[in-house]
User: Fold this.
Amino acid sequence: MNDSISSKGSSRGAGPWPGSNDERSVRVWFKTRISNGVEEEERNPVVGLCLEVVSRMGKGERLMNNYRFPESQIDQLAVMADRVAKGEPVQYVIGTAHFDGSDFKVDASVLIPRPETEELVFSLVEKLKTFEANGCVLDLGTGSGCIALAIKKRLPEWKVFASDFSQGAIDVAQENAKSIDAEVNFECSDVLQKRPFGPTCFDAVVSNPPYIPEQEKMNMEHRVADCEPMSALFVPNNAPLLFYKRIIALCEGGMLNPGGWLAFECHTRFATDVMDLFRGSNTRWDQISLIKDLQGKPRHVFARIDLT
Assistant:
């Protein structure tokens, strides 16, 4: 059994079973079993991913070797298919998600990394490369650690710190740091209650905080709203900028060094409101910018605290 697959996959599967154990039969069978939980256009990628994880081979290699799935793997696929069919994200089922060239462990205690968050990392790293000396970065609400670890991989000489209020998330992030051999300092703390890492000051702070108003849950996909951690997704309806205001206040209070960057991922409806927080502040923020994601949606806000 693939070690990355969630422990739920250790239970026995149930029929119906494929008519044969060849590639085509197993592929058609698995696709049929997940049809209730996955939209049509997403089924083939999900099938391919699950078959690759279980067989530990790509489709091409299996076809070249006329691969036959053994009974144990078909049993494992049946369990996985049932979980996917019930709406559980495939990343939780296989236990990993891909982000910026690495596979990260994920479970229900952390958000599944998204492509738009990769864009946040890319943009911030390009700004930090212009610094004359290596510095310190803080990732707030680190979850799986994907942002902090991707930055560390791209800027290995920088010191990277990361915090999350969930000990379960910190445990996952620490496992991911170990698996990709990256040194990041982790802390379990609630940014709404205390300043992370005490008096330590940073040259950049980055965060993808909770930003979805609770009232939007009813319109969201089941596999997001009911499977991913609510505390990492939702904020009160009357306080959509709760975390942004708190993090900006901490940065203005000395957590961010003069000339340092603050980078946010935002709800597309509130990105301009986040920009207005910087513009309306008594602290001088420069180079305030809004970056659209690859879908053309306003997603990331950057600002640099004044050097003086």
Q: What stands out?
A: The domain at 7-94 is CATH 1.10.8 (Helicase, Ruva Protein; domain 3).
